[in-house]
Amino acid sequence: MKNSNIKNIIFDLGDVILNIDVPVASLSFAKLSGREQAEILTLFKENDLFRQFETGLLDEASFRNLIRKLVDSPDWTDEMIDTAWNSLLLDMPVERVELLKTLRSKYRLFLLSNTSSIHITQVNKILEAATGIKNLDELFDKVYLSYEMGIMKPDPEIYLQVLKEQNIKAEETLFLDDNSDNIKSAAKLGIDTILVQKPVTILEYLKDYAV
After folding, report:
1. pLDDT class for 1, splitting at 50, 70, 90?
2. CATH code, 23-86
3. Which CATH number applies to 8-20+91-210: 3.40.50.1000, 3.40.50.450, 3.30.360.10, 1.20.1250.20?
4. Which residues cross the membrane (predicted)?
5. Residues 203, 99 contacting (CB under 8 angstroms)
6. SS3 for 14?
7. Is the full-model pTM beyond 0.90?
8. Which residues of 31-45 are buried (b: 16+ CB within 10 A; e: fewer)?
9. How far apart are CA 128 and CA 197, in angstroms?
10. Average pLDDT, the chain
């Protein structure tokens, strides 16, 4: 049901706007290395690889070098690593982009994503191939990315930073994410929330807002 108080909408990226399949990345690295997927996941988790890269503690070169070290594959090229890392990124449905264009005429729109620079470069390529739009910045009033902010959802501070910087009120803001922890954290701050769950998409969740 539409909340008539809403003036601002914050979107997550993965599985909200862009379709993704997270396990595909570890599977890609497993195939490249000849190791089991479970072993790859354990190596990445034990070394906090995702969080370090997605909060900017690792730059692209350091990220690639750490992967080479963890899987003992010093001969892997940057392109091999990037391709495996990006394999979890699927498609950008055009109808979701069209919805964003419609909503932007009525609301202030923001993107808030836990992501890395390598992923964002590829996402923009996917976006351009699907729609002709070259950059996510063209769809939102402001794009907030964890690796640039140095913080990740569900840390409450990441939402507070967006609210403060944009001078917007929590009770006038709607946040959509596919992760329940991220939703709970935002809701505790008074932000209205929608947990996006497949197979339902933002087209259904936001149909009343697009009218």
Report:
1. confident
2. 1.10.150
3. 3.40.50.1000
4. none
5. yes
6. strand
7. yes
8. ebbebeeeebbebbe
9. 26
10. 97
